[in-house]
Amino acid sequence: MAAHQFAVATAVLSCLLALATFASCNTEGDILYKQRLAWKDPNNVLQSWDPTLVDPCTWFHVTCNNDNSVIRVDLGNAGISGPLIPDLGGLQNLQYLELYDNSLNGTIPATLGNLTKLISLDLYENQLTGEIPATLGAISNLRYLRLHENNLTGAIPTSLGNLTSLQELKLQKNELSGSIPSSFGNLKTVLILKLNDNMLSGMVPLEVLSLLISGNLTEINIAENDLTGTVRSSGFRVTAIIQDKLKNA
Ligand SMILES: *[C@@H]1O[C@H](CO)[C@@H](O)[C@H](O)[C@H]1NC(C)=O
Ligand SMILES: *[C@@H]1O[C@H](CO)[C@@H](O)[C@H](O)[C@H]1NC(C)=O
Ligand SMILES: *[C@@H]1O[C@H](CO)[C@@H](O)[C@H](O)[C@H]1NC(C)=O
Ligand SMILES: *[C@@H]1O[C@H](CO)[C@@H](O)[C@H](O)[C@H]1NC(C)=O
Ligand SMILES: *[C@@H]1O[C@H](CO)[C@@H](O)[C@H](O)[C@H]1NC(C)=O
């Protein structure tokens, strides 16, 4: 028997066995159930996440497409805490991952870069630590990347400049350091860019400022950082650019 025939036969057999034991043969359900077990859920919002059902499409806070594949997980402000498991990167048709305003901690798994159908990644207002994975730059359909109000550290990955569908990039109120990537000059579709309240240093790349003219940028907030030529201060606003006071102004 050829290798691929054997693989198909094995997959079918394990699925039949799974059905026979009333376990799910849907790997997306397995992934979400594993995530449920990794979280604390004091409000029991995940009670309907029953791994014995054929697929997760009837679970609350989960939405599927017509092929019974998960396209949304909506758990904003749900009271959940704990880590994001790397297996989430296996939800291959996921378009919306809405997990904002919870108490998620640990790092953002690099595997989320495999979610190439993702339109919105909302992990803001949690307690996530570590670096922003450079792999997120591979999600070419991403329109909303909102990671603000976490405890993210390290430099902003240059690869985020590859996100040429982006409308909103919100990374404010973290502990990000290093300089603003000049690759952000490629983000011609971005309307809102918020990088304020971090520890960013160096010059604001001209490529980024030029987005106000050549791109769709309407608001850029870079205040409360350690950028060259400015002194830290709050609430200084110039129509579109919000930055710290100029040193000699
Ligand atoms: C996340 O929070 C829980 C509960 O406070 C804690 O036990 C765990 O060590 C934390 N994990 C990380 C990676 O900080
Ligand atoms: C997903 O991403 C990780 C890390 O970026 C990679 O190592 C892994 O091979 C990917 N998995 C799949 C199924 O593509
Ligand atoms: C995370 O950030 C918040 C808000 O900036 C801060 O109050 C808290 O001390 C930080 N926690 C850690 C573990 O760094
Ligand atoms: C994304 O950006 C990085 C750094 O800017 C670059 O090296 C890489 O080739 C880009 N990847 C893709 C898939 O465009
Ligand atoms: C700006 O936005 C408009 C409308 O959403 C879009 O058609 C246009 O392509 C965008 N411009 C750039 C440079 O992306």
From TrEMBL:
Domain (Disease resistance R13L4/SHOC-2-like LRR): residue spans on this chain: 85-194
InterPro entries in the cross-refs: LRR_dom_sf, LRR_N_plant-typ, LRR_R13L4/SHOC2-like
Annotated Leucine-rich repeat-containing N-terminal plant-type domain residues: 26-65
Keyword Manganese: no
Keyword annotations: Leucine-rich repeat, Repeat, Signal
Pfam families named among the record's database cross-references: LRR_14 (PF23598), LRRNT_2 (PF08263)
Signal peptide: 1-25
Record's protein name: Uncharacterized protein
Taxonomic lineage from the root: Eukaryota, Viridiplantae, Streptophyta, Embryophyta, Tracheophyta
